[in-house]
Amino acid sequence: MPLQTPPLRGLHDERGAKFTEFGGWDMPVEFDSIRSEHAAVREAVGIFDVSHMGQIHVTGPDATELMQRLTTNDVARLAVGDSQYAAITDEDGVIIDDTVVYRLPDETAEGANDEAGGEPTYLFVPNAGTDESTHERWITYRNEWGLEATVDNRTDEYAMFAVQGPDAAELVDEATAESITELDRFEAQYATVDGVDCWIARTGYTGEDGFELIVPWSAAEHVWSLFDCQPCGLGARDTLRIEAGLLLAGQDFDRESDPRTPYEAGIGFTVALETEFVGRDALAELEREGVEEKLVGFQLIDRGVPRHGYDITNTDSRVIGTVTSGTMSPSLEQPIGLGYVPVEYAEPGTTLQVVVRGQSKKARVETTPFIDTV
Amino acid sequence: MSFEIPDDRRYLESHEWALEDDGTVRVGISDFAQDELGDVVFVELPDEGDALNQEEEFGVVESIKAVSDLYAPVSGEVTAVNADLFDAPELVNDDPFGDGWMLEIDADDASELEALLTAAEYEEQIA
Lengths: 374, 127
Hints:
The complex is a heterodimer. Chain A is an alpha+beta fold.
């Protein structure tokens, strides 16, 4: 299957980016160096092209119910301009994907914004390469439940940029006609960037303040070029999110190879058991009984770098878990990682070992996030 | 993008360089290799006195994003390792052909180097 290319592939190439395949997309992994891109986001501001993320648009009289029944969080709590982090789970409560659900201004059937009387409208962002299966899931359940809602996969219509870092608000505010500095975390609004209508949310995946912009694909290059700051690739995105203790789909959970529930993955806060959704009963039971394993953060005390797939052992060298994510933290200059271990080993301060190329390296369970976050 | 490829030394297809001086062979990785790896954060090297065979794996270089094995360009005994790299692995990025060197081997037979790539041949390989 040919790789999908983001609208800015050519521009990134000219800028000297290195590319990598991610979720079926040919994405920039590094523009200058992971270390300098990472530092820009922690200390100032950087911009990421995250156009590989999916965009699914849901509108209609039953849009709220459809969203409510297919995501774990309480969609009914979202007013226009709110958003929430949520998991998409199967009947067993296993995470299929994680996503952010935005409530857009109500829309009429014609798609135009109509404050006088449109229908509830949502945009949510499934992970790279999952937009088609997610779209199909929404259609299937909509039909099965007989709900009235239009579900559009708009992944190919929108680019998505993340402007992240302590100086992000200033930079984004300069670029928009409307002021966006009043937005709280997880709030969003439409704003125009040099005449281009963008959906701008105060969200991100770095642990820093920042904004994500959903931009019409045709205007992507123009909008990108208006942000004069460090371009950042998926490499820095990964080190930043690991430091912030944020999950990566397909790595920190994977429905097929490492099925995990939100409680195991440490995102129980996304589960609104008082609502009705696919997986709710299984999760209610798990919530009562408690989980056997949990995702923990750890730091290697010995020299070495933890990587996805490495074994975690107890101090008797018995394998008790697996590293799901790991890196040399550019901010802490320490090797850190995430992995699942039995709950009796999950207490911060617990000594573990990570097997790096056959050698046991001492590690210590740490609280996450590893750094101070917004 | 063009990379430095000094022609005073030989190269392995796996991107190590070997610079011989009076039977002692200094080893490191190329400018191209360090650029491909990106920020080097960790280097694992053998101990002084270890014996290596040509093309034997002698260590590992890790960047933030990748892990890469290192291969010996000649057979012989390790006489020195660059301990500066343990605290400052970024030397591999900053000066791959100089301060970022990794080890020195007292070659059993320095003519083994002749089987390796010349600078021109290596340049062709990475083109």
